[in-house]
Fold this sequence. Notes:
By secondary structure, this protein is an alpha+beta fold. It has two domains: 263 residues, lpxc deacetylase, domain 1 (2-Layer Sandwich); 138 residues, Thiol Ester Dehydrase, Chain A (Roll), CATH 3.10.129.10. It is built from eight helices and 22 strands. The strands form five sheets. Strands 8, 9, 10, 11, 12 and 16 form a six-stranded mixed beta sheet that branches. It has a six-stranded antiparallel beta sheet with strand order 17-18-20-21-22-19, covered by helices on one side. Helix 1 packs across helix 5. The protein is elongated, with a radius of gyration of 30 Å.
Amino acid sequence: VGLHTGAATTLRVGPAPADAGVVFVRTDLPGRPRIPVDGLHVVDRGRRTALAEGTAEVHTVEHLLSACHGLGVDDLVVEIDGVEVPGMDGSALPFVELLRRAGIVEIPDAPRRELSLADAVGVVEPGSEAPLAALPRESGLQVSYTLDYGPAAPFPPQHVTVAVSEDSYVREIAPARTFVMESEAKALRERGLGKGATHENTLVVGPEGPIRNALRFPDEYCRHKLLDMMGDLFLLGADLRAHVSGLRSGHAGNALLVRRLAALVRAEVDLEERRSRRLDIGEIQRILPHRYPFLLVDRVLDVDGFHRAVGVKNVTINEQFFQGHWPGTPVMPGVLIIEAMAQLSGVLLLRKLDNTGRIAVLLSIDRVKLRRTVVPGDQLILEVETLKLKARTGRVRGRATVEGELAAEARINFMLVDA
């Protein structure tokens, strides 16, 4: 049963393709909606981690996700016929056993993304002012937590630090069970929470310790906070190389930290994509047949699929055409600016596998406008955009600028022919 709803649910785990991530499937709802596991789908439902996609939700996912994190399972389909993940014994250990029984397969060609920090990332949990921080670490993940509810608490302050590995997670974190203070249990029930909580699946903490139960660790309460932290950090979608440390923080603080870290992951992905979309002169020469002195694209700054490209032509006094155009007043011929745009168009469209072994031959040029002279020392920024592309013909719009000022523009039609 679910710890908060008290409703009985059946959960089934199954394999997923590499890089698919973990996805919940609500088998009880029309269309079997899928709910991806990531920070973008987190919704606040209080005292638990919940995910939503449209109107479909799944609650109390943190113990299962903690087990996934600890065991390194990052591709999984989780079918569930209700809104809340079963509470089991209140720890992650039953989910560890479930995943191990299902069998965990390592895919060597699909490594999980890693995130290393250059600087500390800190947040303060809204409402409670509880701090949580991720500190740079050379390798691996280390988690720390300090649980201090003050002098009136039924247990003294606790502090636990674990360098996370599969073995340390299973031994030191996974068995720790969820807990609630006896003094707040009634209030939670009145709020509609904890309907499925019992002394068998929740440590109810009274003045003398757990009621009708026994601790698995002297500091089990603190260790369960690490369990929840591991589950919430799994939403990042990357292996974090850091020391994450919390003080009285909970799910809200964890979610806020994940959002901050996810922004760093997105920035890193964007940087990698920008780098992968750049081409140096060697890569340009592998695509174009042109060579010195008629190769007029020095570098490609960005390629967006087969739709748009931005390149650079650095204009120097050593260009051969300046010897005759004109001595004493060197000006880059306008037709060569158009040619540079045409060559960048070739880079854009000849990257396609279907076009390997072809060259782009000009058919016609129209709407040509030459707006300013280009002289030695100028850096010509070339931009081309595909307007139409068929199997053997294409049409692009090109622009060339110097320091943001338009130098030339044209529409270029060409044919792709076998080299």
